[in-house]
Amino acid sequence: MTLAVIGLGNVLLGDDGFGPFVVELLRRRYGFPPAVELLDLGTPGLGLVTYVHGHDAVVIVDVVARAGNPGDVRVWEGDELGRMASAPRVSPHDPAVAEALSIARAAGNGPRDACLVGTIPLCQELGAPLSAPVRAAADVAADIVRRRVESHGFGVHRRAPRDVEPDWWRGPRQ
Question: What range does the domain containing 16 cover?
Answer without folding.
Answer: 3-169
